[in-house]
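Archive entry. Fields below.
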Amino acid sequence: MGLLALLGAIPSLSLVKIDKSVTVNVTGKDNNVAINGKKITDPKEKAKILEAINAENYLGIAHDSYPHNIIHEDLQDSFSTIKEAAVGSKDLNFLDKYTNKKYMKAIFMARAVHKAMLSNNNKYKRGLISKLILQLDKKFPKDGKKMLNLMTAKYFDSLIIPTLIELEKFPNTDKNFNKYLESLLHFFPTAVFVNNDTNNRIIFREISKRLGIENIPYIIVHALGDENIKKVDDAIPILQQEYQIIISHEYFCSDMGIKGRNTKIEEISTD
Amino acid sequence: MAPEITITFDNDSRDFVLNSIGITKNKRSLIDIDKPIVSLVDNKAIKEKEFGGVLKGSKVFIRKDTSELVQFFLRTLDK
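PREDICTED_STRUCTURE:
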């Protein structure tokens, strides 16, 4: 009997919902089994499940293709988010045609995290999303969080992908696009992102750097959460002492339901 | 459409899973029939403690590393 059919026939699993996916956790030296979180306590049921796993995996050996995903429990949380990010994503496919692999990996992971943020699925609770963000930062320390910032602030939709569509009309698309992406990651002239690890000194420095650029139309300071919004508020009076600027705020609710604010800073022309 | 099954294991149940997929081990690495299993990322042998799994519909082995999962699914994007 196949594994799925067997699971359907086990009495202790009659109340366990098995619809789109089934997770079989095999843990410990005794190979304890849990199905979608429900522990199998009957030794005979457990033995049948382990036997079915062996039988189906054995077929995989013969066909050079395993019938199930088999992953270490440490990868379980990120597995489903990363997998879902790959499904039906025209933007990712389009970017993948031209983007350097080193950036594409960070974009992909950032997209997976962003998708989890947007999901109404209860499994993507805040703790899990924080864990995924930590993994993103650990695996892609240079560009991971930057990619996520660009994604959550909608710059991929409004700026980066439209730029690639334009560049595609000309030769050397991949070279030009990657040069563009690299410069954006290095320095985004019209945007500053305030994260939990951004202090007031950095905020002031980054805004000043941009105000020093000739003909910069505006700077948008993106801040999420009350503490980060306060950091921007603390920087504004100091900026107003040094520059003649107009400040306007736009409040929003983030994909995860957190209060956010985009502060637009425009330098008053003295011409 | 039939539900998709994911089997997870921990460090203690790893041997059960390795046996079920026909992977043996020597001092240095994990072996598939007569050759070491290698990661799709760097083509280097995967050691027992590094083993992260194998993905459905493939015989692509990965280390216990999120970036190797990313690499695997990047390959599934349509070209």
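CURATOR_NOTE: Strands of chain A lie at 21-27, 32-35, 38-39, 69-72, 191-194, 219-224, 245-253, 259-267.
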